Amino acid sequence: MSHNDPSAVVAAFLQQRFPHVEIAHDEDIFALGLVNSLFALELVMFVEKTFGFTVPSDEMRIDSFRSIDAISALVDRQSATV
Amino acid sequence: MSPMAASTERVPTDRAAARCFARTHLAPLATRFDQAGSIPSETLDRVGAAGLWAPFLPVGYGGQGASMLTVGQVHEEIGHACSSVRSLLTVHGMVSWALLRFGTPGQREQWLPRLAAGSVLGAFCLSEPDAGSDAVNLTSRAVRDERGWVLHGTKTWITGGQRAHLFLVFARTGAGIAAFLVPRASEGLTVTPIPGMLGTRGSMLARLTMTGVRVGPDALVGPDGFVNGMVMTGVLDFGRYSVAAGSVGILQACLDACAQYTAHRKVGGTALRDRQLIQAKLSDMVTDTRAARLLYEAAGRLKDQGDADTLMATWVAKYFASTAAARHAAEAVQIHGAVGCTPGHLVERLYRDAKVMEIIEGSNEIQRITIAADAYRKDVR
């Protein structure tokens, strides 16, 4: 697993946080009820530290963090801007 | 800024500088602050001149780019001398942090330099008369119209509210609980002092009544929606970190006072220091003080690394440090006997201030629920 595969990294983080929940890569983690305000901030901090960017305010929306795929796409978008 | 402030030379903020400042400018006056129920303007100016209001802000905004570990150590040293001033640093830091992390470029340019200097003082406004800090039951509301937002509601127990220039107000919108910047001069905002609280009496608490307070569209901190809960969570995390560090300051002050008193006080011809029950109390104070310091410093290092584990580390640090402070402040009064119950005595103030630490920025009951939930989430295999 490397940062070349952000979806795997994000999936591993979610698995560590929620070891009893199976999460498909396209599954809505908000709809699963996993995201409260505490975990939302943890998730943002994890993404920023792991992938080395600060989430810009226009990406601070649910759609950017809705699923493993969505987060991976966010990482790809930010990587493209570097 | 008063002329006195100019005489305080600004040096890079760290634990040693904060200790020097606290012991020179705060400790000798802390009882007076407590009895007066306020901090005089010249002291607040001195805090600003020493660069203590928000040293974590970047240099470009007038801060010092201090690490969060350093911020914790500074708050410990200030808390050792005066929990009321430390409480003002806490809420001011919470507002500054929110703008640094979630503010727009315009909000940061407008407010952060003044917050760094202390020419604008910030206050955090979450609690309400019927909800406390239970965000689910907040009733203050913000309604959007074509000119911005209109706020209604009441906030209470607002630390620094009597003196603050800028309030970070949490109110309900259609998308959740959002944070708004409300200048003190806003029409429809009434600030009422709350005197005579049990502890941190100098922290100038107030009640805010908002009756159709109008703010512009740029008053919202962060985009409305996903960010709302994060602003509150992040700001409270900063507050809990500061309270944890301040509680260690109280612990160290209890230890210092008790060691000094028992070294000289004799009962029945025997120095208290030679009594094993006294030794047991002091040894527990030493141990808990060191453990609490390790916990908040660990949380601070995680913040500096941007590690999400800092959130839970801070919960644990605040819970441990504040309960230890309340427990050992009670023991400090016990060790001092009637002397420690005397109005104006150091340990009497520490006892009252320590109790407050168990309640603010999330009561310890809420903290235990959160810590346990995390244990079930991550640690049960």
Give the secondary structure arrangement, pairings included:
The complex is a heterodimer of chains A (82) and B (381).
Chain A: H1 6-17, H2 37-51, H3 62-65, H4 68-81
Helix pairs in contact in A: 1-4
Chain B: H1 15-26, H2 30-36, H3 41-49, H4 68-81, H5 83-102, H6 105-117, E1 122-125, E2 141-145, E3 148-158, E4 166-173, E5 176-183, E6 189-193, E7 206-215, H7 226-264, E8 266-267, E9 270-271, H8 276-304, H9 310-336, H10 346-357, H11 364-379
Parallel strand pairs in B: 1-4
Antiparallel strand pairs in B: 2-3, 3-7, 4-5, 6-7, 8-9
Overview of this structure, please?
Chain A: Residues 1-79 form the Carrier domain. The complex is a heterodimer of chains A (82) and B (381). Chain A has 82 residues and is an all-alpha fold. Chain A has one domain: ACP-like (Non-ribosomal Peptide Synthetase Peptidyl Carrier Protein, Chain A, Orthogonal Bundle). Helix content of chain A is 55%, strand content 0%. Chain A has helices spanning 6-17, 37-51, 62-65, 68-81. In chain A, helix 1 crosses helix 4. The longest helix of chain A is centred in the middle third of the chain and has 15 residues, at 37-51. The radius of gyration of chain A is 12 Å and the shape is globular. Chain B is α+β, with helices and mostly antiparallel strands and 381 residues long. Chain B folds into three domains: 3-121, Acyl-CoA dehydrogenase/oxidase, N-terminal domain (Butyryl-Coa Dehydrogenase, subunit A, domain 1, Orthogonal Bundle); 124-226, Butyryl-CoA Dehydrogenase, subunit A, domain 2 (Beta Barrel); 230-379, Butyryl-CoA Dehydrogenase, subunit A, domain 3 (Up-down Bundle), CATH 1.20.140. Chain B has eleven helices and nine strands. In chain B, the strands form three sheets. A four-stranded antiparallel beta sheet of chain B has the order 2-3-7-6, with no helix packed on it. In chain B, strand 4 (166-173) and strand 5 (176-183) form a beta hairpin. In chain B, helix 1 (15-26) runs parallel beside helix 4, helix 4 runs antiparallel to helix 8 (276-304) and helix 5 packs antiparallel against helix 7. The longest helix of chain B is centred in the middle third of the chain and has 39 residues, at 226-264. Chain B is globular and about 80 Å long.
